[in-house]
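Board notes (copied after class):
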Amino acid sequence: MTMEKSAITGLGAATTAYLIWGLSPIYWKSLATVPAFEILMHRMIWSFAFLAPLIFFTGRRSEFKAAVTSPRVMLILLATTLLVGFNWFLFIWAINSNHILQTSLGYYINPLVNVLLGMVFLKERLRRMQIVALLLATVAVGWMAIRYGHFPWVSLSLALSFAFYGLIRKIAPVGALVGLTVETMLLSIPALVYLIYIDTLGMGSFLKATTRIDLLLIGAALVTALPLLLFTVGARRLHFATIGFLQYLAPSCTFLLATLVYNEPLAQSQLLTFILIWVALVLYSVDSVVYYRKTG
């Protein structure tokens, strides 16, 4: 494959991944009759059932075995499992509780939180533009809390949990596929126990509602694993700066869904918060491109 074809393939894969992530509220909204925690349990079980065979078909059995037999790696992945589980649960709950705008804001903030965590935990030095972007984001969140009278806890919880997830995964010597497989495996057993328990109480949705609901719960595996696999393909073929710009596709799609499809109210104070975040992200992105060109 030529470099040009490789780049086009990578662009298509990464764009598709971010579009799936950005449009996923449509999927979770279709499961609004199922409690968010029950959806999360199904997401873990069916994702593991989908990912486990891929480990064998892609020749990653030795990497998977090395991960599950290493106490240090398993401890790290246990921490990331709890973080990603919390992130997934909160996202699903927020979507089905009509807080889609907050999820959009959370993933707009996420790159800036990553920069902040890099400074605090990895002792990375912030460049001037990054400092300005972080200050703007802080002002935006503070403005929403004071003017709108509502602290954006959903947004910040999503941004922080995913940022810490990424930070901890950086020190785990496993690839994206193996790591996600182990994470879903760790929660699959308690998830199965929970689902069996609520089924005995007559409270479970699986095989008791409609065939459509059953298929959507099973399909949660594809919504989880497919975009991650596509992102991995794209990340290997594209420049870091390109990935940096593409990452805003997901929260942008979610923002448009919230305002144009699900008619969530967008108060003037909320709009100003988003504008400040968008300006911060422009500064952050321009700085990243300039820095990448200088060092690349």
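Comment from the instructor: Residues 202 and 208 are 9 Å apart (CA to CA). Residues 3-295 form one domain.
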